[in-house]
Design a protein that fits this description.
The complex is a heterodimer of chains A (427) and B (251). Chain A is of the alpha/beta class. Chain A has helices at residues 2-6, 8-14, 25-41, 57-60, 111-116, 128-132, 140-148, 374-381, 387-403, 409-425, and strands at 84-89, 92-93, 102-103, 106-110, 153-157, 165-170, 177-186, 191-197, 203-212, 217-223, 231-240, 245-253, 257-266, 272-282, 286-295, 301-311, 315-324, 332-341, 347-356, 362-370. In chain A, the strands form two sheets. In chain A, strands 2-1-6-8-10-12-14-16-18-20 form a ten-stranded mixed sheet, with helices on one face. In chain A, strands 3-4-5-7-9-11-13-15-17-19 form a ten-stranded mixed sheet. Chain A is globular. Chain B has ten helices and twelve strands. In chain B, the strands form three sheets. In chain B, strands 6-9-10-3-11-12 form a six-stranded mixed sheet, sandwiched between helices. The chains are: A alpha/beta (427), B alpha/beta (251).
Chain lengths: 427, 251
């Protein structure tokens, strides 16, 4: 505990939600280990390599800032989708607003229920993937989450789950400081889709650990709400078995600070991981995608597609890495990050990294940053489309490569309609 | 109907005048052709008329039914009835051809104070127009011009023209990049739009397009102005003798 005493920011972090409830031994051990990890790693600092472009101060502050909730008559994202709905209000699970936690091919429980169970499959995942994902780049805020989060769900897919599970995060308070931790296990050959929607709180820290067995498939589509002042720091830790599939897409509109970290390890041959994000920010907006994909098996494919539309001084950050281990031959890695700047005041910072130790691989990356293409604008306008609408069309087209990573067309169209709503409001 | 009056225009980036007193008058229902050597200002004429950025108008007017197009944004010019078929149609990944055109049709209708077409009305119009131009449904579903062959791109331009029903069409080197069959098909599409009221200005290097789209008047352009105007026989003369004789004649 000595390290904790010396590192006061860590103490402050651990004091956030008080001591967690008593749980099973495995739960208690996992949390204790996470406390130890956080103590060793220390709180993130501005001079850390992966925090150079995003200041962690607001994420470390003792309390969440006041963030007004947005009031809108618009139905929530994924509202029309047939789904198993799980509702959190200010980060607390609400059984009264949620569907029964039962589904075909599916076991779903609250995190607390799982932690209270002495023998539970989640013991092999909870804190395990997060812990593994601390190397080579530290993610102390995820360790904090494992140590403290009392809210979340654990989901085990044992078959082909037809209905997506939708986590809907609602807010009642303007300053809720939220921590959620979800654990997903996709058994061999099983499939499921997880949807997440909403800002969750004035400040949210989330961890999603996803363990995909051989031939399993996990689809993840997330929309992070529209509230302006909120802070969000999400972590996705995924481990992929042979011939498995991970597809994760995130839409971010508004929000004062968003940092979405993804740590993906391809551990079985022929696995496929696609990570994509589309964000739109106006004014006081800092959006950071920090992605680390490790190829640790043969003939795997990974794809990172991140697009950011920025205006009025908004900042976009992309830090994306592909690490190919020596035995990961026939790797096919791809990464593209693009910023579309709608004025001269906005900033896009990109740091693509490839680290390749195998000799028979294809890895490509690209990063671009620029304004709306004037030739295309002229083409659209010459057909009678006014400048503002033409620009919105160009914005939507720019983001579409990321949205195209969503396999389900109904979900993709829902996301498209959300972003065209944004472009209309902000043009 | 359509009139270019003493148009002088320069490139914005360089202090270089391209159009040096261009004059042209196209009456209702007429088809005029502009021919001329490379660099004579043919395409610049079409860009300045349509309002492309990067040019400065030093003097002159471009009138469509008495309104000066040069005072308008490109979209307003389109709503006023001008259509430019591009030499190189622009590929716009991520934008569906149908969505694009429906937005264009309805934007124009809105600007003109007409009622917008709903999805069903629009589809009906699409079916009518696509059939005559041999546009298949697949082309309509794809993103604008992306992966289209040269012929498909130009057919797509004709289709847009048919859908937007402009009063004045400028065809900028529509024949470039087309084989003979594709050119015929595009020409048929254009001819189908000739209704005695709609006017055309066909910009081309070669006479062969004019075999298919028969002009009433042919203009020869050189160094930023029209140097000679005549009937269809002028195009044939150019085809046989090149531009050198004409240029010498003027010099």
């Amino acid at each position: 505990m000595g390290a904790l005493v010396q590192d006061s920011p860590v103490e402050a972090l651990l004091a956030r939600t008080g001591a967690p409830r008593q749980t099973s031994d495995w739960g208690a051990n996992a949390r204790l280990a996470a406390r130890g990890r956080l103590g060793r790693l220390g709180a993130p600092k501005r001079r850390d390599e992966y925090w150079r472009y995003t200041n962690p101060a607001l994420l470390l502050a003792d309390s969440a800032p006041v963030s007004e909730r947005i009031h809108s008559d618009e139905p929530p994202v994924f509202d029309a989708v047939d789904k198993l709905l799980v509702v959190f209000v200010d980060g607390e699970y609400r059984a009264d607003l949620s569907d029964d936690l039962t589904g075909e091919g599916l076991e779903i429980q609250t995190l607390q229920e799982a932690l209270d169970t002495d023998i539970h499959w989640a013991a092999n995942v909870f804190g395990v993937l997060e812990s593994a994902g601390q190397k080579p780049v530290a993610r102390p805020m995820a360790a904090m989450n494992t140590a403290l989060a009392a809210q979340g769900v654990v989901i085990r897919a044992t078959g082909k789950v037809a209905r997506p599970v939708c986590l809907r995060y609602l807010r009642e308070s303007d300053r809720a400081d939220v921590m959620v931790h979800h654990v997903v296990r996709i058994e061999e050959g099983a499939q499921m889709t997880l949807l997440e929607n909403g800002p969750a709180g004035a400040r949210m820290n989330s961890v999603l650990e996803v363990d995909i067995a051989d031939s399993g498939a996990f689809h993840h589509v997330r929309a992070q709400g529209r509230d302006h002042g909120r802070l969000a720091h999400s972590h996705l830790f995924a481990r992929l078995g042979a011939s498995s599939l991970l597809k994760s897409f995130t839409l971010t509109v508004n929000g004062k600070l968003t940092r979405n970290e993804a740590v993906v390890e391809l551990t079985g041959d022929d696995a496929v991981a696609h990570l994509a994000g589309a964000c739109l920010g106006d004014s006081d907006f800092q959006h950071d995608d920090t992605v680390f994909v490790t190829h640790d098996a043969q003939n795997c494919e990974s794809r990172q597609v991140f697009k950011k539309v920025l205006k009025n001084g908004a900042t976009g950050v992309f830090q994306g890495k592909i690490l190919v281990q020596p035995d990961a031959q026939k790797t096919d890695g791809y990464q593209i990050s693009q910023g579309l700047l709608l004025d001269d005041d906005s900033t896009f910072l990109a740091k693509p990294e490839l680290e390749i130790y195998a000799d028979d691989v294809i890895c490509s990356h690209g990063s671009t940053c620029g304004a709306v293409d004037e030739t295309s604008m002229f083409y659209l306008m010459s057909r009678g489309i006014p400048r503002k609408i033409a620009q919105n069309i160009m914005i939507e087209a720019f983001l579409d490569e990321a949205i195209a990573e969503i396999d389900n067309p109904e979900l993709a169209d829902d996301i498209r309609s959300r972003l065209s709503g944004w472009t209309e409001r902000h043009s | 109907m359509f009139e270019i009056k003493n148009l002088k225009a320069s490139l914005a980036d360089e202090d270089k005048q391209i159009l040096k007193g261009m004059n042209l008058k196209v009456g209702p229902g007429e088809v005029h052709a502009i021919m001329g050597p490379n660099g004579s200002g043919k395409s610049t004429t079409s860009y300045v008329a349509a309002g492309k950025g990067g040019y400065v108008v030093d003097e002159g007017e471009v009138l469509l039914n008495g309104e000066n197009l040069l005072d308008m944004e490109p979209d307003e010019r389109a709503a006023a009835g001008l259509f430019l078929a591009f030499q190189y149609p622009v590929e716009i990944p991520g934008v569906g051809n149908m969505t694009f055109l429906r937005t264009a049709v309805n934007s124009q209708r809105k600007m003109r104070g007409e009622e917008e077409l709903n999805a069903a009305q629009f589809l009906k119009l699409v079916r009518e127009k696509a059939k005559s131009l041999k546009i298949d449904a697949d082309m309509l579903k794809r993103p604008v011009n992306v992966g289209f062959s040269g012929g498909e791109q130009k057919r797509n331009e004709s289709w847009q023209m048919a859908m937007l029903e402009p009063k004045m069409c400028i065809l900028d080197e529509t024949d470039s990049g087309l084989d003979v069959d594709a050119m015929k098909l595009v020409a048929e599409g254009v001819n189908a739009l000739r209704d005695g009221k709609r006017s055309f200005l066909v910009i081309t290097h070669y006479q062969r397009l004019l075999d298919h789209i028969k002009p009433d008047v042919v203009h020869i352009m050189a160094d930023g102005k029209i140097i000679k105007t005549g009937g269809p026989e002028l195009a044939l003369e150019v085809e046989h003798n090149g531009y050198a004789d004409l240029l010498n004649e003027v010099a």
